[in-house]
Design goal:
The complex is a heterodimer. The termini of chain A are far apart. In chain A, helix 2 crosses helix 5 and helix 4 crosses helix 5. Chain A is mostly helical. Chain A is about 55% helix and about 0% strand. Chain A has one domain: Cytochrome c-like domain (Cytochrome Bc1 Complex, Chain D, domain 2), CATH 1.10.760. By secondary structure, chain B is mainly alpha-helical. Chain B has two domains: about 190 residues, Cytochrome Bc1 Complex, Chain D, domain 2 (Orthogonal Bundle); about 80 residues, Cytochrome c-like domain (Cytochrome Bc1 Complex, Chain D, domain 2, Orthogonal Bundle). Chain B contains ten helices and seven strands. In chain B, the strands form three sheets. In chain B, strands 6-5-7 form a three-stranded mixed β-sheet. In chain B, strands 1-2 form a two-stranded antiparallel sheet. Chain B has a two-stranded antiparallel sheet with strand order 3-4. In chain B, helix 4 packs across helix 6 and helix 7 packs across helix 10. Chain B is globular, with a radius of gyration of 19 Å. At the A-B interface, loops of A face helix 1, helix 8 and strand 3 of B.
Chain lengths: ~120, ~280
Amino acid sequence: MRMKTLVIPSLSALALVSTLTVAPTVSAAEDTAALIEEGKRIAFNRKKGNCLACHAIEGGALPGNIGPPLVNMKERFPDKAKLKEQIWDATRANPYTIMPPFGRHEILEPDEVDKVVEFIYSL
Amino acid sequence: MKKLTKKLGILLLALPLAQVAVADVSPEEELVKFQNYYKQKFPDVPFQDFANGVYSIDPASREQWEALEEFPPYEIDIEEGKRLFETPFANGKSYADCFENGGIGIAQNYPYFDTEKKEVITLALAINRCRIENGEKPLKYKKGKIAKILAYMAYTSRGNTLDIKIPNKDALEAWKKGRQFYFSRRGQLNLACAHCHLDNAGRRIRADILSPALGHPTHFPVYRSKWGELGTLHRRFAGCNKQVRAKPFKAQSEEYRNLEYFLTYMSNGLKLNGPGVRK
């Protein structure tokens, strides 16, 4: 019992040390880039976000025009949490909205919502 | 001008959606509001043209559609439908015996509310009840023989004006249930029929332009390229329910009959032009 609790923290401490020592900024940027890329795939996938059904998004062909084009998102949403809320459950901001509640109705998994948020935030 | 129409749109939209729970809506007033909404949204579309669905508002796809209508893929279905319609049952009677005017040119009166049975009778239901009364098995409701018979009956009714009545309180209840259905969110995607065909009619959902609800029931059954065959109105209802990941109701269920009653009433004044052809 005691052995176990000793071994596990030491392993994770090791992992922590290695990420800290091996060029932390580059790998963080790479992580974000990877998240954005994954978020984009989820957003464009017809069986997942299918955001292009309603929004013009850079890099997406034949978008619909039910919702506004998704541009300048950092200006529109200085607070990332608000952006997440819009995607998680758009009915909070507008009870009559046509935009599906991607998080609340489990159309996307929570981590998929987070990735989509990263992608949309990068626009 | 653009700003004004946008404002108007929002006003009118919020209205029907917000009113869902209100008990005392009047069909007559609602009909005027509903039809005016589309007339204002699409001021260049002549009223009767709404019977042409999305092609009434999209000149680009209209050309292809008009070309299709010159050699319509449903023509052979009308002929087959006529043959089925005229073939006597085993007891020697036929469909003509079940309907007013021998079943010719009567589709504009369907669906109607049967005040004794207290339910909505669609033409498809009436066809199967006719069969059952005459000792025949009912037909399946979404495609096949019934769609062909409906195509023939629609064809003989072309040019007749929709005139759906709400004769009493029970009928009003059925209409209200249909209306409630139309404005209710459904499925994992949480969408109501009204979101797509009322609020956002004319906008593009991906590459598809959303058609106005006004005119939806005038041209059924339709030959859809996607189906590669004829299908009934309730087949389309089920398709639009599945699209939002909702469990569809059965064709000719009470829910869909009430929905058809509401939707067809709202198109009163339009001329029938079925069967139709769609993508």
